[in-house]
Design brief:
Layout: H1 10-15, E1 17-20, H2 41-44, E2 61-70, H3 76-89, E3 95-102, E4 117-121, E5 135-136, H4 145-158, E6 161-169, E7 185-188, E8 194-196, H5 198-205, E9 210-216, H6 223-229, E10 233-238, H7 250-259, H8 265-279, E11 287-292, H9 296-311
Parallel strand pairs: 2-3, 2-6, 6-9, 9-10
Antiparallel strand pairs: 1-11, 3-4, 4-5, 7-8, 10-11
Helix pairs in contact: 3-7, 4-5, 7-8
Length: 313
């Protein structure tokens, strides 16, 4: 990619389908604060044993919906809320809902107030207490490339499916190649506010493919972000503007997916956009777009040519 000027939003709508639908403040790290019995193996699905037994395609579920749920910051309470939204539907005979959830001190004390990073296979009615986790990986840095790589590998190995969605959940700031402030996604307060710059997201996804890559985070619908992930996904879903703290409505999104588990990535992207818009009927300035990542390779040189023309006029 030759040069991009930070064109936010409009290209998300032009490339795919978008819906203009008050938004949370842009995140500045540290800026503000805000017993169910263990379920058995049959309810939780496969337990993380490190082993993978190949399943024939006819036995695979339709979707694995994997959420990188970074609650290690001032969105811990909202992370719990979204976990509970996912659990209103829960995994079914046709879809896996899996989460890597990191928590932190100081924002929310409910559901055992644990502080490490845990992995969950979400079933209907589940709460995020410690005994419901299928794995505890200790205190992981959610702003590290290797943490993403390990989560993706775990989700695909233990919960194989015909199609995969990967959602990055947290604060977002869009594209930046290196250390410019606030241009990244997934801040981890416990790890000195480390975060994932888009070059790190690209590195983490290298060699993988997802039918849908989502960012339930502010300000991520930039063509530069799409360019970084274009080789690793079919559809991208993200917001041009800041998102309200409640973010995506996982109960209605996953309800639709559970109702029609054979939907493809384009259809799931449309569901996310539509349900997001419907969840904020009285809000102004709300945006969410789903785009076809295959079109980015043709768009990139056009934007570079436009950028060049601006330099000389």
């Amino acid at each position: 990619m030759k040069k991009f000027l930070g064109f936010i939003g409009i290209f998300g709508i032009l490339l795919g389908y978008g819906k203009i639908v008050s938004a949370a403040d842009i995140y500045v790290p540290g800026s503000y604060t805000t017993s169910q019995a263990a379920i058995n193996a049959a309810a939780t699905g496969p337990v993380d044993t490190g082993a993978y037994e190949f399943q024939e395609p006819s036995t695979l579920k339709e979707w694995t919906f994997a959420v990188y749920l970074d609650g290690d910051n001032n969105l811990e309470r909202e992370a719990i809320d979204d976990f509970l939204e996912m659990a209103t539907i829960g995994s079914t005979a046709e879809i896996n809902i899996v989460v890597q959830f990191d928590r932190v001190n100081g924002y929310d004390w409910s559901y055992d107030d644990w502080k490490t990073t845990k992995r969950f296979y979400i079933t209907q009615g589940m709460t995020p207490i410690a005994t419901n986790a299928v794995a505890d990986i200790g205190e992981a840095n959610m702003g590290a490339t290797q943490t993403v790589i390990e989560f993706v590998g775990w989700a695909k190995a233990n919960y194989p499916a015909k199609r995969y969605a990967l959602v990055f959940w947290n604060h977002g700031g869009g594209w930046r190649e290196d250390s410019k402030p606030h241009k990244a996604v997934c801040w981890d307060e416990t790890s000195d506010n480390d975060c994932l710059y888009m070059a790190e997201v690209k590195e983490a996804l290298a060699g993988e493919h997802f039918d849908l890559i989502g960012f339930d985070a502010c300000l991520m619908a930039m063509v530069e972000v799409a360019y970084q992930i274009k080789d690793y996904g079919t559809v991208a879903v993200f917001s041009q503007e800041a998102e309200p703290g409640d973010g995506w409505p996982y109960d209605t999104i996953l309800g639709d997916l559970a109702g029609t588990p054979t939907m493809n990535a384009n259809e799931l992207g449309q569901v996310i956009v539509d349900r997001y818009g419907e969840s904020y009927p009285d809000e102004m300035g709300i945006t969410q777009s789903a785009i076809d990542l295959a079109k980015i390779k043709d768009l990139a040189p056009v934007i570079s040519q436009f950028a060049d023309s601006l330099e000389y006029h």
